[in-house]
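Running co-folding for fe (ii) ion.
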Amino acid sequence: MRIAHLTDIHFQQDPSFNELFKVKRLMGSTNLYLLGRKAKFGLEVQRKSVEKIVDLNPDLVILTGDLTAQALDGEFELARRELEPILSKFPTVIIAGNHDTYIDPFPTKMRELFDPWLSADGADLKEFGEVGVLTVESCRPTLLSNGYVDPTRLQKASTLLAESKSSFIFMCMHYPLLNRRGELYGPSTRAISNAQEVLDWMKGETKISAYLHGHEHHGYQTTLPIKNGTIPSINPGVSGYNIDLKKQRFPHVACYTVDDGHLTDIERWQLKDLNEGYKAEPSPAFSSKL
Ligand SMILES: [Fe+2]
């Protein structure tokens, strides 16, 4: 099976006057408009990322959060329209990112438009033949960008894992647990506040085969310990960035091949030129360190 992964695509629209005056959104808008974040994301590249996923013709698509910039109703509507080529064609799993939960831990508009693809009750395991996808929601509205994993979700995840028949299980959360050097991910203002608790829980599990996440805009791969060894932890890098070669910033998507219960290939594509389109990163994936 081939599983395509995109993350942090950040569809964005300008907030209305009423939407702006919610404290967190006011901070987000300041970030977007005064600190230049808005220029970092754009519809042209977002559409190229969606096209690339469709071209890959995968068996399954995983989107690890941050569909929007500020969780505006209009942004969720835009995301739903723009993601239609994926959602109408491929089985897909979506989790929320911290940008999708600016105001509400379960945004009504996100649930209304994306319900078939989201987790049930904050932890869920969906099975697609030999591949299972365990999702654990970790985002919440705070003035900063930190998350938290409710321990009851980990208990539920343990039950779901024990019951699963899948031979290869991806665990998906929006946040990294470890950084690119294999240390606890930080700073604390941008991390899961109980990441160590999640790592300790993971060390008691045997059936997680790989961990997929987003949030950190430059992608990287590291490993995480589980009870019977280590598993890869993979973030392709954001899929909605405008291209800025000087800052070495451009969109990525990834694709994983799972065969007979094993991860046999990791491929990653980079969009450095809109006219040339997505190009494969020279093998092995992540060799370019970007
Ligand atoms: Fe994020």
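Result summary
The radius of gyration is 18 Å.
The pocket of fe (ii) ion is lined by residues 8, 66, 97-99, 174, 215 (CB under 6 Å).
Job closed.
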